[in-house]
Amino acid sequence: MSTEILRAEGVTKRFGALTAVDHVDCTVREHEVLGIFGSNGAGKTTFFNLLTGYFRPDEGSIHYKGRDVTAVSAQERVALGMTRTFQLTSTFDNLSVVDNLVLSYFRSHTKPTLLRLLFSTRKRHRNDEQVLRALLSFDLEDERDREVRHLGLGEKRRLEIAMAMLAEPELLLLDEPLAGLADSEIKAVLEILGREVGQRTIVIVEHKISAVKDFVQRLMVMHEGRVIAEGGYDECLRHPEVRRSYWQIADSADLARSGHE
Q1: What is the pLDDT, as a whole number, of residue 173?
Q2: In CATH terms, is domain 4-90+169-260 a member of 3.40.50.300?
């Protein structure tokens, strides 16, 4: 069994009277691909924000590679090897594709100010090996000099993932990377992500569960802030509580009980 890389224990997050994440336990092992799945409002994105340091839990703890990172900031977690993407693409839309990659690489590997990055570093590093490799790996060579605002959503998704990968993360966390994409764009993104399987650990939050059927190795299904099923894809989708809460499909036992009430 591979080494544990990330562990959440009893993690809880409340917003006023609403408990968005309710005592969730989760373990992720090195080089595993874990999918976190659930309907809108299930708590999956809030849990994701807890894992990545954008929220601090009200209860529970989070450990990364054996270290307690519960109170560690999002930026510090990036330095430790955890990198995330967002539901909405996070790019500099008024800059070119290659300049976005240059900025991402040097923000991850050096400590210059953003002002220096914007005005003095970009031109010198547009042909650096790491940047050129990212353009090739993520099929962005033809878009190299285009301003990001002119890209399609699928191209922007590929760029954002490329920017995340330039940080060379051990743990890549993807927040609904397929949201809003057409089928052809979904296929392109998953083909690229598939190259990373076995190379690094991936946690993906996704609403389109059928799209990642052949990508994820294990599922964790959430509903109303709780984990209601965990295991293989088919196993989770057959789980009675998943069928009731997500698909609104009642089991025969449920139907029999309701017939007697």
Answers
A1: 92
A2: yes
| pLDDT tens digits along 43-91 | 999 999 999 999 999 999 999 999 999 999 988 998 899 988 765 457 8
d(CA 175, CA 14): 20
Query: From the centroid of its chain, how far is CA 42?
Result: 16
- Domain spans of the chain, in order of start: 4-90+169-260
Contacts of 57 (CB under 8 A, 6+ apart): 11, 12, 13, 21, 50, 70
Q: For residue 18, what are the β-bridge partners?
A: 15
The CA–CA distances, whole Å, from 202 to 32, 165, 253 equal 6, 11, 37
Of the given ranges (24-28, 34-38, 126-130), which has the lowest mean pLDDT? 126-130
Residues 261, 19: Cα–Cα separation, whole Å: 31
